[in-house]
Amino acid sequence: MKFDNKYLPILIGGIFALGIFIGSLSGTPSSKSFMTKKNTKEKLNKLIDFIDNEYVDDVNTDSIVSLTVNNILAKLDPHSVYIPPSEQAEIAETMKGDFVGIGINFYMHNDSLAIITPVKNGPSAKAGIKAGDRILYADKTKLFGRKLTNDSLFATLKGEAGSQIELTVYRKSERKKMKITIKRDVIPLKSVDVAMLLDKITGYIKINRFAGTTSQEFKKGLTSLRKQGIKTLVIDVRDNGGGYMEEAIAIADEFLKDKELIVFTKSKKEPTEKTYATEQGSFETGNVFVLIDENSASASEILAGAIQDNDRGTIVGRRSFGKGLVQREMDFNDGSAVRLTIARYYTPTGRSIQKPYSKGNEEYFNESDSRFLHGELYKKDSIKVVDSLKFKTKKGKIVYGGGGIVPDVFVPLEAEHGAENISYLLQSGIVGHFVFEELDKDRNAFAKLTFEQFKVKINETNSYFNAFQKYLSKNGLKVNLDNYKPLVKRYVNAEFARQLFGDTYYYEVVLKEDAMIKSVLKQNSKL
């Protein structure tokens, strides 16, 4: 399976494997050039052996090899990366779309493992675990007061499907300790956060990444929305860094007619490979909007590009990241892997949306930050396009290559300059931790509220806004939120809704005043 994702090389380190060289060889040596390359590879191998066996001091040669492999890959492109075993297992699990465990969302609060929410219909929820519970022991392993890392906690709580684990739990709301036996099971890792109605005829689907189960999740959500009579669908891939390109292709196929081009790729040795839509599309005539921003990359851009170039829908938001390279993951025996760029992809009009990377990885990844300085996130006229990379869709609409998907309808950041950091802060884990601790003070005060009653209760007070300001200060973040009060309240209130009622309610709150959603509903009224 081809992999089309944006994982920052600054997160990558690891152990070099000689197989990266050997695995690429085939046939019989037949030229001086080949022998020179072969000798160079043998030289690297011998050098490592010399250091390992003869060098005066003890040296961790794995660390030397790590520098070697990362230096080699850094000469290629920003998305050819090496992944050590410690990271590869977690990444593979995330992209697979499920894992075996007990099904809890948690964090370490005051050196105790605190349950934010049990996964709906998961093993823990079925066994009676509740939000706010503290897990003191897993079997006989003590979990509190030890400053355990998430890795060690995951290792303790995960296991084989069907295996049992006995948890000793303290329930603060009832002030009692109890033992609960849980049978581990497969826990889905959702890549589609929500499929819901924005109004009676407008559906909304949020995709957070393109994993192995994404198209399946998407089709399930789309089927549900179609049964509710939608005539318009909004696909949200904001902050979606990508994933498997096959999943993006399968989703695009739902909207395009038979034999319409979705994407094509070009590699060094293989002929151009074109992928077309099939007859299987289930939403080929309704209105389609795709929401993108500066963090929408790779597979997200394949989907947006296919919709835009086929004149199938409207792209709304800000210029996307600009990643037009395709990677293939190649595994080593030690559990590590190399993700190597094997092709470039092109949208149906023939444009590459890959932005330049000749000035190095640091400048490449910081390019998105430079858009703040150029004013691009606030004014469409500030978007830099290259006239020589101009293309036309079937209906004559002008689109551009060379660095991301430029939206058809531009929507600036919601607040004035300076709010971008606040927006990112509000979508980080710290809001979830704050809300958990506020709820933990008195869960019974919210226990019997309906969602409508909750909205009245949460909106009539500024106490949680003020408390959040103090919480940030207590945690070393000196930020004045007064100028962004409506934005802060929206995200804090949405997180309360999520922890009390579920993901759908989070989006019901947070999308109500969302600038891109407002733009879509305005555009949709004209269609």
TrEMBL record:
InterPro entries: ClpP/crotonase-like_dom_sf (IPR029045), PDZ (IPR001478), PDZ_sf (IPR036034), Peptidase_S41A (IPR004447), Tail-specific_protease (IPR005151). The keyword Transmembrane helix applies. Gene3D superfamilies: 2-enoyl-CoA Hydratase, Chain A, domain 1 (3.90.226.10), 2.30.42.10, 3.30.750.44. CDD domains: cpPDZ_CPP-like (cd06782), Peptidase_S41_CPP (cd07560). PROSITE patterns: PDZ. It holds the Pfam family PDZ_2. The chain crosses the membrane at residues 7-27. One of its GO terms (biological process) is proteolysis. Signal peptide: none annotated. GO terms for molecular function: serine-type endopeptidase activity. Its EC number is 3.4.21.102. SMART domains: TSPc. Keywords: Hydrolase, Membrane, Protease, Serine protease, Transmembrane, Transmembrane helix. Residues 88-158 form the PDZ domain. Belongs to the peptidase S41A family. This is Carboxyl-terminal processing protease. It comes from Flavobacterium granuli.
